[in-house]
Recover the amino acids of this structure.
C-alpha cells in the first residue's frame, strides 16, 4: 500500500487534448460510459413497490427509468414506450401502480411488462409479451444502484467494483441519512471537474480561508491505486483550534465535519477499512469509483459526487451529503454546521474548474504538469480513461 | 414585523431572541443561505453575537424533544439555530457574508433533502 507517493520520477506531463477533443469525448461515450457500471442513486429512495425515479444520462443520450417492482426487485428500463417511442414517464420521481404512455395509452406494469394496448384488436397478432420496456442491467451494491447500458454485461457489478466492494461490504450505510443535496452545471470537461477532487494539494490555496491551518501540518495524503478505481485519504492538522460554532458542533455530535476526535469511542466505531494507515489525524477516505462516482467516507458522514458529462465541454454535477441518522435536535444543529462547512468548501472547489477548462481549450497550454506524489490520482484517472478509449497515451514529452 | 406580533414566538427562556424570528427563522437551507448572502456583515454579527450566548442552552432545551414531535415554538427556535450555523462561517472563517473566491452562489443549486 503506497502512502503519499506514486512510482514515478519527475513530474508527469499529461496532455490536455483528451479534455477538449470532441472526437475523444465520442470515444469516451462509446468505450467507457456504454461499457461500465454507472452509479445512479440509492435504493432507499424508492422503498415501496411502484416507487420510481428517472435518471437522465445525457452521456448515453438516454433517460433511464428505475422502478421497484411489486416483487420488490429493482429494474432499470429505457424511459420510452415500445409503441412508437414516446417518452414514457415525465415526473422525475414518484410512485405508480402502472405506467401509461401519454401518446396512445400503452400501459406497462412496474415490472416493465406491457399490460394494455388500447384497441388491441386493431393490432392483430401483436404479442404483448415481447413488447415490455427495454431493460438495462441493474445491480445494487450496499444500497448503491448501478446500471449498465448492456442488458447482459460481461462483468458483474461485484467484479467491476473489485477491490473496493470487499473493503466496504457491510459498512453501516443504513445509519446515514440524506442531509444536503447540491448541484451545478459547469462549462468543463468531466475529467477536469473530477481532477479538482482527486488531490489535496489544492487545500493550501483554494481552502486557505475555510481550512486555514492546514499548512501547519505536513501535507501528506494517502493515494492508493485500486485497479481502475483509486482512493485518496485526507488528514488534518492535529493542532486545529475550532472556532466557537465549530467547537459546539463537535461537542453536540462527535461526527462533525473536519473534527479530529481522538476518543477511543469514535476510533472503535470506525470501519476497519477506513484510515488504513491508522493515523490519528485521519479525516476521511475518498473512494473514486471509475468512471464518475466519488464516495467520501468520514466519521458519521458520507459524501457522494456524481460527474455526468453532457458534452466534451459541459458537466452536470450532483453531490449528496449524508450524516448519522438522528432525531435529536441538538445533533441536527451540529450537523447543520458540518453541512454548511462542507457546502462552503465545495463552492471554493468549484471556483477553479471553468477557468481551467477554458485555459485548456485555448490550446496555448498543451499539457498539465503534475506532481507524481500529490497528483498521482489525476495521472491514474486519465490513464485509465485512455486505456478504455484505446487512445494515444496521455503522458507527453514536455 | 413588530415586536408584539413576534411575542410568544419562542419558548420563554429565549424571549430575547424573538426579534430575530421574522428574519432568521427559516425552514430551508436555501432560504437560510439566501438570507446570509443578502445580509450585511453588521446584521450577521448582531445575530451571531446574540445567538452565541444562547446556542448551548438552545441545544439543551430542544433535546427534551424528538425531531418529529417538535412544537411550533421549538421548531422556530431550531430554525434559528440552523441559521446560526449557516452564518457562523461568515463570522468565524470568511469575515464576509458570502464565501470569497468561490463559484457564484446562484450557480450552486441547493436542493432540500
Ligand atoms: S408511443 Fe406510447 S402509446 Fe404510442
Ligand atoms: Fe477541496
Amino acid at each position: 500500500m503506497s502512502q503519499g507517493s506514486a512510482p514515478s520520477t519527475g513530474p508527469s506531463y499529461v496532455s490536455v487534448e483528451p479534455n477538449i477533443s470532441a472526437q475523444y469525448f465520442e470515444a469516451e461515450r462509446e468505450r467507457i460510459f456504454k461499457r461500465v457500471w454507472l452509479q445512479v442513486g440509492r435504493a432507499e429512495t424508492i422503498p415501496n413497490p411502484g416507487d420510481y425515479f428517472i435518471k437522465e444520462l445525457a452521456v448515453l443520450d438516454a433517460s433511464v427509468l428505475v422502478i421497484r417492482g411489486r416483487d420488490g426487485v429493482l429494474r432499470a428500463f429505457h424511459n420510452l414506450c415500445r409503441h412508437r417511442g414516446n417518452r414514457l414517464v415525465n415526473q422525475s420521481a414518484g410512485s405508480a401502480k402502472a405506467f401509461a404512455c401519454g401518446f396512445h395509452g400503452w400501459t406497462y406494469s412496474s415490472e416493465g411488462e406491457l399490460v394494455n394496448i388500447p384497441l388491441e384488436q386493431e393490432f392483430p397478432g401483436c404479442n404483448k409479451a415481447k413488447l415490455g420496456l427495454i431493460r438495462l442491467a441493474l445491480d445494487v451494491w450496499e444500497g448503491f444502484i448501478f446500471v449498465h447500458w448492456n442488458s447482459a454485461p460481461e462483468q458483474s457489478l461485484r467484479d467491476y467494483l473489485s477491490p473496493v466492494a470487499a473493503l466496504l461490504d457491510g459498512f453501516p450505510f443504513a445509519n446515514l441519512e440524506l442531509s444536503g443535496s447540491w448541484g451545478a452545471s459547469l462549462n468543463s470537461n468531466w475529467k477536469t471537474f473530477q481532477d479538482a477532487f482527486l488531490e489535496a494539494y489544492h487545500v493550501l490555496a483554494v481552502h486557505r480561508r475555510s481550512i486555514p491551518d492546514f499548512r501547519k501540518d505536513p501535507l501528506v495524503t494517502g493515494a492508493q491505486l485500486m485497479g481502475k478505481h483509486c482512493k485518496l485519504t485526507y488528514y488534518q492538522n492535529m493542532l486545529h483550534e475550532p472556532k466557537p460554532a465549530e467547537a459546539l458542533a463537535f461537542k453536540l455530535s462527535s461526527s462533525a465535519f473536519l473534527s479530529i476526535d481522538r476518543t477511543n469511542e469514535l476510533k472503535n466505531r470506525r470501519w476497519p477499512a477506513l484510515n488504513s494507515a491508522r493515523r490519528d489525524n485521519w479525516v476521511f477516505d475518498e473512494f473514486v469509483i471509475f468512471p464518475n462516482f466519488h464516495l467520501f467516507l468520514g466519521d458519521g458522514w458520507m459524501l457522494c459526487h456524481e460527474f455526468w458529462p453532457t458534452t466534451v465541454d459541459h458537466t452536470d454535477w450532483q453531490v449528496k451529503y449524508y450524516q448519522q441518522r438522528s432525531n435529536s435536535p441538538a445533533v441536527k444543529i451540529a450537523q447543520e454546521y458540518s453541512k454548511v462547512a462542507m457546502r462552503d468548501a465545495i463552492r471554493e472547489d468549484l471556483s477553479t474548474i471553468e477557468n481551467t477548462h477554458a485555459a485548456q481549450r485555448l490550446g496555448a497550454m498543451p499539457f498539465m504538469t503534475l506532481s507524481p506524489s500529490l497528483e498521482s490520482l489525476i495521472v491514474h484517472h486519465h490513464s485509465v480513461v485512455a486505456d478504455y478509449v484505446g487512445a494515444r497515451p496521455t503522458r507527453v514529452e514536455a | 414585523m413588530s415586536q408584539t406580533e413576534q411575542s410568544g414566538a419562542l419558548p420563554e427562556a429565549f424571549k430575547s431572541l424573538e426579534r430575530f424570528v421574522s428574519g432568521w427563522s427559516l425552514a430551508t437551507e436555501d432560504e437560510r443561505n439566501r438570507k446570509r448572502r443578502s445580509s450585511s456583515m453588521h446584521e450577521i454579527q448582531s445575530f451571531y453575537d446574540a445567538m452565541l450566548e444562547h446556542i448551548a442552552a438552545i441545544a439543551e432545551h430542544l433535546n427534551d424533544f424528538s425531531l418529529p414531535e417538535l412544537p411550533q415554538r421549538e421548531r422556530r427556535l431550531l430554525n434559528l439555530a440552523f441559521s446560526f450555523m449557516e452564518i457562523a462561517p461568515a463570522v468565524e472563517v470568511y469575515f464576509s457574508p458570502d464565501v470569497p473566491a468561490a463559484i457564484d452562489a446562484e450557480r450552486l443549486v441547493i436542493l432540500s433533502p
